């Protein structure tokens, strides 16, 4: 391997490990009990901090996020089903979290998803799985197929609610992938950010377990915008959450937080993580609006090259005392290679992908921000007939203007008696 490549890889590893060490020291002061932790930028999943992020572990009710994804992508959300309580009664008997569905109740898939996500209703989750494909095993297979599609290669689901089973497991890293994808769905985002949801017939209101528990136990969760809680004997306390109060939106996953009477460490530890990030990180511009992002050659123009500017800033979060090192910034452009006066201001030319210290940061559409000036000599040589006609029209126009001016002048010279 080339020496320069080896050195670059080593430098990047040192930078990443140093950042993780600094944040790890901060977390140590917080006495985090979670066995597996991950904090990621929502837009690109760049890690801020990871602890055993690839370890396969039970994830309890975080499983229900995938249940919601598969449901919403395979049904008309307004379609209604009839609850068969005999099919879901075992979840009541075994004391799982339930939404309280009634036998023969008519309810839409939309309300089933929300009553599964907010109070973590196992009955709603089971009702979804039994009805979407009318085959529970087929639904489970769809969950695993979706996992593979998303690149969740260390995940396997064996049930739809996350009950303990050796074949129902995932990792912090895979949960982050799932969360990023899920946040694109308005119904899932609604379900994990709302305090309460009333089903459409108005007969029942359910509450978000995250915010309701925080209220009951007087736990500050002001930095947690939304999330999905989980708990089983094997998984411990789990929370998949995101924050919009941080310098830029972040995902945080805590798995295996310690279980003690009167405590909800998954909530308090997540809040402490977000609060700590707010203290030591800030958002910084890697590319600012107006920066030159690509210089393209021009033809048929008085300019040999045209500088194209960024129409929006591209940012990332960095430690407060860290400055942007432009030498570590890489911008890859894909699009039109050569400009001409035929290209108009505001026209989309392509896109840029921005990398910083080897990590993908984000993309931006590239638009032409300045006019490409026409070289008149080249145009005349290439279009003699059009140039001649244009010249004739100009001369004719000038003659017409002169005649009008002369006529007006003569009228003004007439003396009226």
Helix and strand topology:
Layout lengths: L2 H28 L5 E6 L5 E5 L11 H10 L7 E3 L2 H9 L12 E3 H9 L4 H10 L4 H15 L21 H11 L3 H8 L2 E3 L6 E3 L1 H8 L9 E7 L3 E8 L6 E8 L7 H16 E7 L4 E6 L7 E5 L4 E6 L9 E7 L12 E9 L2 E9 L8 H7 L1 H30 L4
Helix pairs in contact: 1-10, 2-4, 2-6, 3-5, 4-5, 4-8, 5-6, 11-12
Keywords:
417 residues; alpha+beta; Beta-lactamase; Peptidoglycan synthesis regulatory factor (PBP3), Domain 2; 5-stranded antiparallel β-sheet; 3-stranded antiparallel β-sheet; 12 helices; 16 strands; 39% helix; elongated
> What is the top-level CATH class of the largest domain?
Alpha Beta
**C-alpha Rg (nearest Å):** 31 Å
CATH superfamily of the largest domain: DD-peptidase/beta-lactamase superfamily
Output the number of helix runs. Answer: 12
- Helix coverage percent of residues? 25-40%
- What number of domains? 3
What's the oligomerization state?
Answer: single chain
Return the CATH architecture of the largest domain: 3-Layer(aba) Sandwich
Widest β-sheet, arrangement of strands: 2-1-9-8-7
- Category from helices, strands and their pairing: alpha+beta
If you consult CATH, what is the topology of the largest domain? Answer: Beta-lactamase
């Amino acid at each position: 391997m080339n020496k320069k490549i080896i050195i670059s890889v080593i430098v990047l590893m040192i930078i990443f490990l140093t950042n993780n060490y600094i944040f790890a020291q901060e977390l140590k002061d917080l006495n985090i009990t979670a066995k597996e932790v991950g904090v990621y930028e929502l837009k690109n999943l760049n890690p801020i901090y990871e602890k055993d992020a690839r370890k396969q572990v039970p994830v309890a009710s975080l499983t229900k996020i995938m249940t919601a994804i598969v449901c919403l992508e395979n049904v008309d959300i307004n379609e209604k089903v009839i609850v068969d309580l005999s099919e879901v009664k075992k979840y009541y008997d075994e004391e799982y979290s339930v939404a309280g569905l009634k036998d023969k109740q008519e309810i839409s898939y939309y309300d089933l998803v929300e009553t599964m996500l907010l109070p973590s209703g196992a009955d709603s989750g089971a009702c979804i799985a039994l009805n979407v494909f009318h085959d529970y095993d087929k639904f489970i297979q769809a969950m695993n197929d979706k996992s593979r599609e998303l690149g969740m290669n260390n995940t396997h689901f064996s049930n739809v609610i996350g009950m303990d089973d050796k074949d129902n497991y995932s990792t912090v890293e895979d949960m982050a992938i799932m969360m990023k994808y899920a946040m694109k769905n308005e119904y899932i985002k609604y379900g994990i950010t709302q305090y309460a949801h009333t089903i459409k017939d108005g007969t029942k209101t359910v509450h978000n377990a995250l915010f309701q528990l925080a209220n009951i136990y007087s736990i500050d969760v002001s930095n947690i915008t939304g999330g999905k809680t989980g708990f089983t004997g094997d998984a411990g306390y789990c929370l998949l959450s995101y924050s919009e109060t941080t310098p830029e939106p972040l995902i945080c996953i805590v798995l295996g937080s310690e279980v003690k009477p009167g405590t909800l460490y998954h909530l308090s530890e997540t809040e402490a993580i977000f609060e700590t990030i707010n203290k030591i990180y800030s958002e910084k511009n890697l590319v600012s609006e107006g920066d030159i992002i690509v210089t393209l050659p021009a033809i048929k123009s008085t300019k040999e090259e045209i500088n194209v500017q960024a129409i929006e800033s591209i940012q990332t979060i960095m430690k407060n005392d860290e400055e942007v090192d432009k030498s570590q910034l890489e911008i890859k452009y894909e699009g039109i290679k050569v400009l001409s006066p035929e290209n108009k201001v505001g026209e989309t030319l392509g896109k840029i992908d921005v990398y910083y210290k080897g990590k993908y940061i984000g993309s931006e559409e590239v638009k032409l921000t300045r006019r490409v000036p026409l070289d008149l000599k080249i145009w005349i040589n290439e279009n003699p007939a059009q140039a001649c006609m244009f010249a004739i029209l100009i001369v004719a126009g000038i003659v017409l203007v002169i005649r009008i001016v002369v006529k007006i002048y003569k009228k003004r010279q007439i003396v009226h008696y």
